[in-house]
What does this fold into?
Amino acid sequence: MGKMFNSAIVEKFVGKETPFYYYDMGLLQQTLKSCKDASSKYGFHVHFAVKSNFNKRVLSAIKEIGFGADCVSGGEVSRAIETGFTNNDIVFAGVGKSDAEINLALDNDIFCFNVESVHELEVINELAGKKGKKASVAIRVNPNVDAHTHHYITTGLDENKFGVNSWDLPKIVDTLKASENIKFLGVHFHVGSQITDMNVFKSLCVKVNEIQQWFEERGVTVKVLNVGGGLGVDYHHPDEHSVADFETYFKIFNDFLEVKPHQEVHFELGRALVAQSASLITKVLYLKHGIKKDFVVVDAGMTELMRPALYQAYHKIENISYLDDQTKATKPYDVVGPICESSDCFGKEVELVEASRGDLIALRTAGAYGEVMASFYNLRPGIRSVYSDEL
Ligand SMILES: *Cc1c(COP(=O)(O)O)cnc(C)c1O
It folds into this structure.
């Protein structure tokens, strides 16, 4: 796998206004194709989790390769439709869908609502009834599988706001049977994000098998098995592992999921499809020497990339201004942004090539949950993007 940066590329950054997201469109394409090839082998359906990146060029590339869209708000449903995803390729999840969002999705006849509670099921039935429509739904079941990941991004444990817990399932079946404006499609799961332990997905398969069996024993036909997303990426070695191991991932589901002839398997991948394809490029503004530390103050902050401040996430940081000079010494720095918060720090004791004012710094693996989380806090100007094929 090639490296994302070389001096010819960095040369083209010079003079551009920083900070900006740099998208490697070739790498994105390679990643999407790798996922497509690995999933088609088993006839699996892949939806892209739009919340991880709603950049228009990224979404277009994803639509072109033939994946669907997994949305978590009315805004994302609209964005997916604008991008050209067909309504039959759109699913809509989320614990707090508003009436307006449900109505928007009903008007657009989306493929499926992923329903997260008994109460929500009742409301969707009622709103669909008012329109004389039938809403297709999958029930998001909380499988009580520990994703072994950061507690902020674990979603599949019992004490969690996401999904229907096992003890509520009988109530779901009763409600389904009593709901004239609901068409039951299947079951949905999503146990967390940045999952690198493949055993988590094996455990998930075992639960899915149990739960779909439970539904079918009660006379409810399960057509769709939606196993969510969560496949992790290598934040520490972005160049060595620039494409996630889709082969192994999909093979696990093929080996461990009991798929009946009338069933389809659906996935909702976000991070694994886009994370490695972008870096946040920022410029060194100031060097500051503390008593025991040296600080590099850069012109990007948590307003452009929030993950480090939000969940202490690691992003590899590189000084890309001296790629052709292997002899430059390195030094540990705390890399901090301009925002008035102590948590506005991208990394502590980061070993970087000795920095000068004006050097370009890359924060790697920033294509997922990066640009989408940008904010206007401190009245920042909003984020810019640069694409490798438009340099
Ligand atoms: C966030 C989310 C995903 C995507 O998760 P990744 O870890 O980015 O793959 C999929 N499904 C649902 C319901 C989500 O909330």
The domain at 26-275 is CATH 3.20.20.10 (TIM Barrel).
